Amino acid sequence: MLLLPSLYIGLSTYRSTGSELQSQLMDSANESVNTVNDIVTGTLTAKYSDLAYYANSISGADAERGTLGSGQNLQDSLTQYVNTHYDVLDIYIVGDNGVSRHGAPEGKTADNFRKETIYTDAIKNPGKTIVSSVFQTAAGQNSVSISRGLSDGKGIVAMDLNLESLAALTDLKVGKEGYVIMLDGSNHYIVHPGYDDIGQEETADFVQLMNTGDSGQFSYQLEGSDRKMIFATNQLTGWKIGGVIFDKEITGVSRSIGLTTLWVIVSAVVLGGLLIFWVIRSILKPLVQLKESTARIGQGYLNERLELARRDEIGELAENFQRMVDNLKDTIVMVRDTSRSLSGSASQLAAGADQSQSSITQVTEAIQQVASGGEKQLASMEAGAANVNNLVNEVAEVANEIGEVHLMMNVTSQLAQEGNEAVATTNSKMDSIHLHVEELDRVVKGLSSRTEEIGSIVTVIAGIAQQTNLLALNASIEAARAGEQGRGFAVVATEVRKLAENSAGFADKIRELIEKVTEEMTGAQASMEHVAASVSQGIEAAQTSETAFSHILITVQGLAQSIEASADKLQRMKEEAGNVNQAISQVQQLSRENARNTETISASAEEQLAVAQEVAGSTEELKKKAEELNELISRFTIN
Predict the structure, then answer these.
(1) What string of DSSP letters covers 154-192?
(2) How far is CA 394 from the centre of its chain?
(3) Which three-class secondary structure state does DSSP give residue 203?
(4) Domain range for residue 576?
(5) In this protein, which residues make up the domain named HAMP (predicted)?
(6) Residues 584 and 377: beta-carbon distance below 8 Å
(7) pLDDT band for position 84 (50/70/90)?
(8) Considering only Cβ atoms within 10 Å of each terminal Cβ, which end of the chain, N or C, has fewer?
């Protein structure tokens, strides 16, 4: 990611820097050339002015006399000028007659000087300053002469300039290794930092290139090295001023810049790589920790803690994730506690349902026993009713026979014998009735006892239904706490509560029926006691009749009285027998109603048993769901 942009930037920088450096060096060379040109122009302009002043002020006659127009000594003036201008080696005046005046003591002789071009050119070009080629003085100093014809044309004034002073002024560097050169009109060096022998003529090819125009730039090769030159021409002297730049300096600096750029790129890439590695590591390390923690949490270990001491987005992510895990753990704990409570409630509800089912089974069995006893009671009552009817008929017959006794006294013995047999039969029947009545009384008492047991069982059922309702209510509350996961348990708990309410309703109905049966059984028991008393009286009457008939057999004299007493007793017996028959009919009707009520109770008990079995099934399903929920929760490790 960083290498390619860095290489592109480095390469672009290297190229632009090389071009910019070359441009800067060329500008520096151009500036150096212009500076030297300005120095030469400035220096020579002053000398040109001084030379013109002398040329215009002095004539050939003044030169010959040795005085100025003002009367000042010419020699003193020239000497003073030389002494006050360090860059002037000599100033002198040469007349056409060979007389010369010098400011310096070792000046040239007039005869020799008049043979040089500086003299002849100045004479030929009046009013124009002539510049000579470079030469060395007798003292070995590099110099150049400028000359100008006198105002009357009879001589010249000339000045030898110290090139070393000019070279010192123009000794400028172009870059680090570049330099400035200056050639006169004859291609002789005026200034060259590498040459001690000034005045040497340059014959290299670049000189021709410099002479192609007043200014310009070009590349050339000299002494095996590639160079570039910017040159200009001094307008006063015609000298060529050139600024030389070595290509190796440009390439060297560019190479140095390239190496520096490469080093910067490498350093930037290394540092950037280290920084990226540190950044990626600082990002990946917490992400790896977060991944490992999430993997542990995904395996159910909710006790895993994310400890990231960071304040950036990853730290906020870890903090939010830890908060989510804590909330999930709290939810799991709450669901676990609710599930355990629900499981316990389901177990209690199952136990209560089993107990209720067992109690209802006992009630059903007791009701079946009551029904069986009622059937037996009904059969006994029917037999008793038949016996009582027979007794009534026999008593009627006895009454008729006693009526006939008055008419049939002659057959008293036979009738007494028959009466004795009839009384014996009556006594036997009364004993049988007494036995049946006692048995019926025992059955009624047993039925009453069974009814009380049924009432106790129904009370237990009502208590179990109430406890079941409370357990269902607790299960609904725990399911509501469990939220969405407990919705199924809430439905089951609602159905259980409805079943418990139905059980309580049926228990109340059974209690009402049992109370009615108990009330009717109490009446039946009272009637049976009355019937038993009547039967006892009938037995006593039969025994009395038997005694009377025995007395009839012994004595006939008291027969009339005995028959009359017997008639009265038979009348009362008939009435009592009718009462007994009516009581037995009532008891029979009560037995039928008791049988019907017993059937109703049995049906209700069977329905209650079915409800209890349904409650047991729902409770078992609820317990199974709670166990499944506990198994799911056990997959999570919280502590």
Answers:
(1) SEEEEEEEEHHHHHHHT--EETTTEEEEEE-TTSBEEE-
(2) 106
(3) coil
(4) 328-633
(5) 281-333
(6) no
(7) very high
(8) C
